[in-house]
Every structure is written in C-alpha cells, then in structure tokens.
Design a protein that fits this description.
Blueprint lengths: L2 H7 L1 H22 L7 H29 L5 H31 L4 H6 L3 H17 L6 H36 L5 H23 L14 H8 L3 H19 L1 H52 L5 H27 L8 H9 L2 H4 L3 E6 L9 H22 L3 E9 L2 E8 L12 H12 L3 E6 L5 E8 L5
Parallel strand pairs: 1-2
Antiparallel strand pairs: 2-3, 3-5, 4-5
C-alpha cells in the first residue's frame, strides 16, 4: 500500500495523535509549572498550557463531531461546528498571549500595557468578521468553515507562533542562560524552532480558499505534491514542541533545589551568628572585663606616676576599648528587632513564596491586634516558626502545614503541624533544632517536637507572654 493511501486510511488516528500531543503538553505544563516561581517563564507558560488544551480539543473535534452528527439534531451539530471554529481562533489567541507575556518582561510598563488587549482584540475581530462579514456571503456552511479556518491561521496562528518563538528564544538567552543550565536553554531553543515550524505548517498552510495565499499554497496542494498530509508535519512539530517544553520544565525543579539550598544556608548562617554572639557575650567579653578589673586592682597597688602605673593605666584603657568593640560587634551580629507584630510576621510568613511554593500554609490564630509582644521576643518566636517551616520543606514531604497561635492568660502557645512523613525513628538534633530549643529557653519556655497523630509532625512552643526574668 502506498504511503499516501496508508496515511489517508489512518487520517483519524493521525488527528487523534495530533490532538493528544498538544493536550498532553497542556496537562504537563499545568501540573509542573509553579505559581510562586520567581521566573517570568512560569507565568507565561500558563498560556501555552491553555493553547495546548484547547488546540488538542479542537483537533479531536474533527473526529468526534462527524460521529455525533449521526445521532443528534442538525441545530446542535451547527452549534458544535460554530464552537469548533471558535476553539481554533481561541487557541491561537492564547499562543499570541504566550508570546506577548514572554516579551512583557523586556518591555517598558507603558508598552506592555498597550499590548494587554491585543490577543482578545485579534480574536474578536477574526470571529466577528467571520460571522458578520463572511457567513452572509458564503456559498454554504462548509465554505464558511474553511474560510474562517484559513483566516484564523493567517491572522492569529501564524503571528502567534512567530511571536512565541521569538519570545522563547529571547527568554532563554537573557533570563534562563544566567542560571547556567545549558540543557534547559537548549530545550527552550528547540521549542522555539518547533514553534517556527508549526507556524509554517499550522499557520501558513491552511485549507483551500479563493484568496492569497490559500489559493496558491494550501493543504490540498501540499498533499497532492508530496503525498503526505500536512497534519503529519503539524503533529511532528507539535511533538517536538511538547517534548522540549516538558524537558524545559525541569528549570522549576532546579529553582526549587536552589531555593531550598539558600534557605539552608541562611539558617546555618543565622545559627552561627547566634552561637558566635553567645560566645562573645558569655566568654570573650567576660574574660576581657575580668582582665580589666585585675589591671584596675593592680593599678591601685602601683606607685602613682611611675612607669608601671602608666603602663597599667594604658592597659586599662585598651581593655575598656576592647570591651566596647566587642559589644559593638555583638550588636552587629544580632539583627535589629522587627517593628512588625508577631501576628503580622506570622501572616507574612504564611504567604511567603519560599514556603508556599512547596506546601499550603494555613495560619489559625486566637490573637487580636492589641496583643503585642516585646519586639525581641516576637523575633525569637518568628525565627523558631521559620526554622520549623524550613524543616518541613526540607525533610517532611508534606502538602499542608498549619500554624496555630493561641494565648491562654499569660502564656503563649504556638504549634506548627504538618501532614508529612513524620519523625524518623532515631531523631538527632541538628543545628536548627538546637537553635530552636536555645531560643525557647531564652524566652523562658519549652519546645516539644513529636508526632502529630497518624501522620506528620507537630512542633509546640510554650512560653510566657511577658519576660519573667
């Protein structure tokens, strides 16, 4: 059997695979993209996902609408055919929006705002023109479908594919390349080339129509010349696009990994600063202060205005300066207390993308706006909660975390509970956990880490409301 006959006999199978390629791409992007990602690509890919989903459904419509036409009334078939044509234009409008959203990061705000309504305007002009200008003069409904299809490809699909290809390439070179991940950069470049190829086969080569370029280059002439339907080339370009985009989605995993590493480094640095600060306060400063007292007592025993007395006086001055310098350094090691209340700090923490990217954080509190802690105590509690959330992200594999804050008379109780893997059988206290317990002792309270029922971990902090020391 010749190839052309084989492809014609399997037309529906090719259409099904064609639609499936775009639909799978849309689903993969929808599940893998990150709403809280700091990359502009994350927000732009939403439109590529919508394009893939709608375009996949459109291609499947060529298979299922003729089947449904055997069993449903003519008006319902016409309605499905109208919706089918509209889906083609809508999918291409999403492709235009994808390209514009990629380029928006490189434009001035005023220029980006002017482009805001371009995709919707293109979709409205195309569909309005098709319904009110083309439909009344078309010979029959099939002719109207063919002309509307061609116009959607020429005036929305082709510009959308070119714009998206350019946006992907520029984004890969100017934004993603800085992450030093050549494999992902290359995947985005391949995706851009696939969009260019798709723009030619899916946007420039349309159905036969009585105007340029459809009267010279169209799907019928293409198949007659090569013996291969243009749908096959659209499917191949769509397949390359889907694979390369799914490969490029690994950039979000890389971003997540680096974000976790950054959180760990910040916690280690904060812990080390605390340890050094305590060592300075409890060790070095006390030793220097003691040495100063010894020098002062020796100066009393020395004969005034002698060389020994003068040297002891200079030593006393140097030691006092050393104590002052150590206290200044100690103040620099300790961050200044935040002006925000405890409740405001916890609300900010619950919405922090560093945590919300990985787990759903819910804050449940029984405090009022008038319940205010001393700034230093509020900072200690915020740091403990931050460390608890960081541990959930790094180790628990949880999906939900609840921060509970309640005040009972003159005591404050804070819990951080997740639904993750729970505690290991042999729990060894690392820097983070030791730092949390040290802060709890500084607050005059206790910290308990245990299982949260059937699954997950609960961290409970119980401290006096006021400093009782």
């Amino acid at each position: 059997m010749p190839l052309s006959e084989f492809l014609a006999a399997n037309r529906d199978l090719i259409l099904f695979i064609y639609g499936q390629v775009f639909f799978i791409m849309g689903v993969a992007i929808a599940f893998q993209s990150r709403r809280y990602s700091r990359l502009d690509l994350a927000r732009s890919l939403t439109w590529l996902a919508v394009f893939g989903l709608i375009h996949g459904l459109y291609e499947w419509g060529d298979i299922f609408i003729p089947i449904q036409a055997r069993f449903v009334a003519e008006p319902l078939v016409r309605l499905m055919q109208f919706a089918h044509v509209f889906m083609l234009g809508a999918s291409f409008a999403c492709l235009v929006e994808f390209g514009i959203s990629l380029l928006r990061a490189f434009l001035k705000p005023a220029a980006a705002e002017r482009l805001r309504w371009v995709p919707l305007g293109m979709l409205g002009l195309w569909f309005g023109g098709s319904v009110f200008l083309v439909l009344p003069f078309a010979q029959d409904f099939v002719t109207w479908q063919r002309i509307s299809n061609a116009l959607a490809r020429y005036f929305i699909g082709l510009p959308g594919a070119l714009l998206a290809a350019y946006g992907l390439r520029r984004h890969a070179v100017e934004r993603i390349a800085a992450l030093r991940v050549p494999a992902i950069v290359n995947a985005l470049r391949v995706a851009g080339i696939a969009l260019l190829v798709y723009g030619f086969f899916g946007g420039f080569i349309g159905p036969p129509v009585p105007f340029f370029p459809g009267n010279l280059v169209n799907t019928a002439m293409f198949q007659d010349s090569l013996g291969i339907p243009v749908t096959l080339f659209r499917s191949l370009s769509g397949f390359v696009l889907a694979v390369s985009i799914i490969r490029a989605l690994e950039v979000f995993e890389l971003e997540t990994q680096r974000m976790v590493e950054s959180m760990e480094q910040q916690q280690i640095l904060a812990t080390e600063r605390e340890r050094i600060g305590r060592d300075l306060h409890d060790g070095a400063i006390q030793l220097v202060y003691t040495a100063g007292l010894l020098v002062e007592s020796a100066k009393v025993l020395a004969t005034p205005q002698t060389a020994v007395a003068n040297r002891l006086e200079k030593a006393e001055t140097v030691l006092n300066d050393a104590v002052t310098a150590l206290r200044r350094n100690l103040g620099e090691l300790r961050p200044a207390p935040s002006a925000a209340t405890l409740l405001a700090a916890l609300q900010t923490m619950a919405n922090d993308p560093r945590f919300a990217s990985f787990v759903e954080v819910k804050l449940v509190y029984g405090l009022s706006a008038d319940d205010k802690l001393a700034p230093e105590r509020a900072d200690h509690i915020s740091t403990i909660v931050t460390e608890a959330l960081s541990n959930v992200v790094r180790h628990a594999g949880a999906r939900h975390v609840t921060i509970g804050v309640t005040r009972e008379v003159e005591r404050l109780r804070v819990t951080v509970q997740d639904d993750g893997a729970g505690l290991p059988r042999e729990l060894s206290a690392g820097y983070g956990l030791r730092n949390m317990r040290d802060r709890a002792r500084l607050l005059g309270g206790t910290l308990d880490v245990g299982d949260a029922g059937r699954r997950g971990t609960r961290v409970t902090l119980d401290v006096p409301w006021r400093d009782e020391r």
